[in-house]
């Protein structure tokens, strides 16, 4: 009955979903393409042997890379079907995997749509990345006899409380999973409490993602062009944070320093550019070229170049953490050997953040004022920055190996030995 009520609610809010697509399509027309896929209608026929991997957007698509490489190696006679929910995630899939995977949108969680999805593709098994729990999807997978594993799973205390309010609906969905490969023991315990029957700790897959060599080389080229100026990167900033970061930048007042500001979402690039003009700051967009000697802020309005930005920077602040948004993942920064600062709100990536702080690869600040002071202190202390760079590289390498552990668990839980 809970799932029926949920499905009826989805049908009732269908006009709101269409309005949301239309609204997003104003800034990103790609949202209005391939609409049939969002309702389970796919062109052509599917290969007879498929492994399905679902990565909701950009971060999950990149994080899935070592796992997808491992799936292709262990099951070479299967194709990979990579599903997502956003155009930026789909574009990232093309960039990272090319034509080695088949891409499609995962349909909305309507009973008919998810049923058509499984009838069309008939995957051997499915792998959902991180925390993608859809009641009708998992019910349809069980009816179709498709084992589904939740990989690289994470669930914050806050999210667990939210799911707990709808236990009658989500409990059967969690129980339908063949197994959960959790990032940490806390994640596993919270998922088991919500109805998951089998969970093991495998670590965080993002530690196994190697920064692209061409992007690291690009960052070094930027560094050479910019010269000896101190460079502070504000990475993956969210709405409301940029003004705080600019206040911190002014407080830091490091002579000749360059702030590289990279918003999390591409649809906000123009908005942040307008803010910089309003603030009267000499700014240049990445799309317009390299910063000049008098440029105060370089606006990173590009996609897929975060490793280059980390390679360029002397120090990075990870966005989403000054405001109560849960933060973003600092693992890519550590893999590039970039020292990190985070704000007080990192509940979405708590374990990785705490581990990085304990390793000396990261430091936490309480607010924008302290952020500015800490940036100034570190940019003036080459020795401390060098120590943090070494700690970052060591922290990243010490936590690798999650992909192999997940592949072993997937083989066991789906009953499909590699061949």
Compile the SSE list and pairings.
Blueprint: H1 2-12, H2 14-27, E1 50-54, H3 58-63, H4 65-74, E2 79-84, H5 87-97, E3 101-105, H6 111-121, E4 125-129, H7 135-144, E5 148-153, H8 157-164, H9 167-175, E6 179-182, H10 185-193, E7 199-201, H11 213-226, E8 231-237, H12 241-252, E9 258-263, H13 269-278, E10 283-285, E11 297-299, H14 306-312, E12 315-318, H15 331-335, E13 340-342, H16 350-359, E14 362-364, H17 368-379, H18 382-398, H19 402-414
Parallel strand pairs: 1-2, 1-4, 2-3, 4-5, 5-6, 6-7, 8-9, 8-12, 9-11, 10-11, 12-13, 13-14
Helix pairs in contact: 4-19, 6-7, 7-9, 11-14, 12-17
CATH topology of the largest domain: Rossmann fold
Broad CATH class of the largest domain: Alpha Beta
Q: How many strand units?
A: 14
Helix content: 40-55%
* Low-pLDDT sequence parts: none
Q: Give the N-to-C terminal Cα separation.
A: 42 Å
Radius of gyration: 22 Å
Q: How much strand?
A: 15-25%
- The count of domains is 2
Which terms would index this structure?
about 425 residues; alpha/beta; Rossmann fold; 2 domains; 7-stranded parallel sheet; 19 helices; about 45% helix; globular
Short description:
The protein has 419 residues and is α/β, with parallel strands linked by helices. It is built from 19 helices and 14 strands.
Structural overview:
With 419 residues, this protein is an alpha/beta fold. The chain has two domains: 2-203 and 401-414, 3-Layer(aba) Sandwich (Rossmann fold), CATH 3.40.50; 213-398, Rossmann fold, CATH 3.40.50.2000. Helices cover 47% and strands 15% of the residues. It has 19 helices and 14 strands. It has helices at residues 2-12, 14-27, 58-63, 65-74, 87-97, 111-121, 135-144, 157-164, 167-175, 185-193, 213-226, 241-252, 269-278, 306-312, 331-335, 350-359, 368-379, 382-398, 402-414; strands at residues 50-54, 79-84, 101-105, 125-129, 148-153, 179-182, 199-201, 231-237, 258-263, 283-285, 297-299, 315-318, 340-342, 362-364. Strands 3-2-1-4-5-6-7 form a seven-stranded parallel β-sheet, sandwiched between helices. A seven-stranded parallel β-sheet has the order 10-11-9-8-12-13-14, with helices on both faces. Strand 8 (231-237), helix 12 and strand 9 (258-263) form a beta-alpha-beta unit. It is globular. The chain starts with a helix and ends in a 5-residue tail after the last helix. 43% of the residues are buried. The mean pLDDT is 94.
